[in-house]
Write a structure and sequence with these properties.
This protein has eleven helices and two strands. The chain has a two-stranded antiparallel sheet with strand order 1-2. The chain has one domain (2-290): ABC transporter involved in vitamin B12 uptake, BtuC (Orthogonal Bundle), CATH 1.10.3470. The chain has helices spanning 2-32, 39-59, 65-92, 100-121, 151-173, 175-185, 187-192, 197-223, 228-245, 250-270, 276-290; strands spanning 136-142, 145-150. The longest helix has 31 residues, at 2-32. By secondary structure, it is mainly alpha-helical.
């Protein structure tokens, strides 16, 4: 029983990362209505930039780790702003009325560019952060087995929950949320009512990039390192999850992604880890095939 509880607690951390990414992806897809293959690489790229800037600030400027890490996180969010702006104005807006495959190809190109930029920035080396706040907190002890979470895991989980709750409240109660729902439901009708669709698209893409950067920073601080390959896998899982749960409901996408994260943790605890990703993709594919087609109902937050 204690071992099962430990796997559940471990799953909370992965669920928090997946939920952040899925919320941001659905927030973006709700207005662009196109598959975005650059989302996972943006998550990994921002996480890598946080690591590179933190290491540089520590090694070159001789700053203490908290200050160096803060500089890395700020750099990650600045890159997220830049990448979100480039994607919104340089790809999604010009190609909004083109074939969906056009944006798929364009975002795949962005993913490749980010992969190369990250490799060149790191000089083809792996940089690692030292363990940060890896202090275990014991929740339960059963026959000598301690059920624990580290301080950094609790911070990551709390940060994800607060961020998602704040954005849900924003979408439900603010003018920006009403405009987002209007554009998500019918961009043409929204524009005829005076809504600046291009502005809402840009803000949504930048907000999605911010959530990807936040997840990237949380993952980088916890794991110490993050690769573009990891970002691609995370991005594909999030794409499948949001396809199953509905692209126009960020909260539902986040809940579904959190369930996938929990399932992965339980699989890792009891079954061969080598087959985990295969099982997840097969399960999501089956759900996607069995899922009823979208009837065009209005967005539900």
């Amino acid at each position: 029983m204690a071992y099962f509880l430990q796997q559940v607690l471990n799953g909370l951390h992965g669920s928090a990362l997946y939920a952040l990414l899925a919320f941001g992806y659905a927030l973006t897809h709700g207005v662009i209505r196109r598959t975005n293959l650059a989302y996972g690489p943006v998550f990994a790229f921002c996480g890598q930039m946080a690591i590179l800037f933190a290491v540089a600030a520590y090694d070159e400027l001789w700053l203490i780790w908290p200050v160096a890490l803060a500089i890395g996180i700020v750099a990650a969010f600045l890159y997220a702003t830049l990448l979100g702006s480039v994607l919104a104005r340089g790809i999604f807006a010009p190609l909004a009325e083109s074939s969906p495959n056009t944006i798929v190809a364009a975002t795949l190109g962005v993913a490749i560019v980010l992969l190369e930029l990250a490799r060149l920035a790191a000089d083809t080396r792996d940089y690692w952060l030292p363990p940060i706040l890896a202090i275990p907190i014991v929740f339960l002890e059963w026959n000598g087995f301690k059920v624990t979470l580290t301080v950094i895991q609790l911070i990551d989980i709390s940060t994800a929950i607060v961020a998602i709750a704040a954005l849900v409240a924003l979408l439900q109660r603010s003018r920006m949320g009403r405009l987002w729902r209007a554009v998500s439901d019918d961009p043409l009708a929204a524009s005829m009512c005076g809504v600046d669709v291009a502005r809402i698209l840009a803000l949504s893409v930048i907000a999605g990039a911010f959530l990807a950067a936040l997840a990237g920073c949380l993952a980088a601080v916890y794991f110490g390192n993050i690769s573009l390959g990891t970002g691609l896998v995370f991005g594909l899982k999030v794409l499948f999850v949001t396809a199953v749960g509905g692209y126009r409901s960020p909260l539902r996408a986040a809940i579904g992604a959190a369930a996938v994260g929990m399932g992965e943790a339980l699989w890792t605890g009891y079954l061969p880890n080598d087959w985990r990703d295969v099982a997840v993709f097969v399960f999501l594919t089956v759900l996607l095939v069995l899922r009823p087609s979208d009837d065009g109902a209005s967005s539900r937050i």
